[in-house]
Structures are given as C-alpha cells and as structure tokens.
Task: structure prediction
Amino acid sequence: MTTECTTTNSAAGDRTTIRRHPERTATSREALAAILDEATICHVGFVHDGSPVVIPTIHARDGEVLYLHGSPASRMLRGLAGGIDVCVTVTLVDGLVLAKSWMHHSLNYRSAVVFGHATVVDDPKAKVEALRIVVDHVQAGRSTQSRPPSPKELAATLVLAVPLTEFSVKVRTGPPIEDPDDLPLEWWAGVIPLTTHVGAAIASA
Result:
C-alpha cells in the first residue's frame, strides 16, 4: 500500500495549510523532530536584495529550536539576524519508486519545511551550548572528544535560533501507483531502497 501523509502545524500560519489531499494531513511534532535529527544538512531559503537565495548548511535541533551558525560576514546569517523571513527545508530520500509508466515514477521520502524568523543567541553560555549541540549532531558525542571554542572563536561565530512553530512535514512510502491499463505491461515496477552508509573512519594526517 502506498501512503502519503502530511504533518503540519497549520494553526501557526496559512503557509503550512495543505490543500491537496487534506485527508493525509496530521499533526505530529515527533515526525518533524525525527527528520531534522536524522538529516545532516538543511537548505535555508531567504530573499537577498530582492532575489531568492537558497544555501545549504549544517543545522541542529534542540527541543523546539533549530540552530544555524557561521561567520558574522555571511550574508545569509546577517540577513536572518536582521529579522527577514526564513524558510528551512530538509529532505530524506528513502527509495526510488519505479512504475510501469513514466508519469508514475516517484520517490519515497520524508521532508520538512520550517518557516519563521531567527533570533541571535547572544548569551555566551547559551551560545556554547548551541555549538555543542551542532557538533554532536554531526557526530554523536563528538563534543566530549574535541576542544570547545575559545573566547575569540566564539566572538567570531554567529549563532541563530529558529523556533519550530510554523512547519509542515510530508512523507511518501510504498510502491508505485499504477494505472490499471498499465498492469499487464512487461516492465518491472517496484521500489529500490536508498540508505545512507557510514564508512570506516579515515584518520587525519
């Protein structure tokens, strides 16, 4: 069976209201958290000088907050710190869905979209904690196996917090949806699973 469901916080804003197949809409913050936690990278969308821009970057979630960080010289972080609208997206692809018809090929995936406004994390202790969460998101437990930032490094890093209050999550699982007339065709159809493989560690020289 194929399932396509959407998890939204539609009460927070019209941007997350699902109009197509509303029966597939549910509310689950756990689904949002699971996708954000599993993904190793996100894409941050914003408008800069009147043009849309999308930048890939590392993120990390802590409860109801999504952290972003980088250089204060970053146009993305400067703009977000100034209060402009931000849209953060994450997608995990779980499989290639191959149908008998070109038009029914698809992907099995889990995706999340977060809208909002970022705020600057100014408190030094909160800033260090946010960076610890980011490091441990890259590799669990890594913050205890590496040096924390120096005061100079901390001052040269901008940390932003995006509240997880306006979001939507969409999930597709299962085999292709075939047209009945296509079922007798000889072509193979089904799902090719995709997974992320973690290789053996390679020590730095």
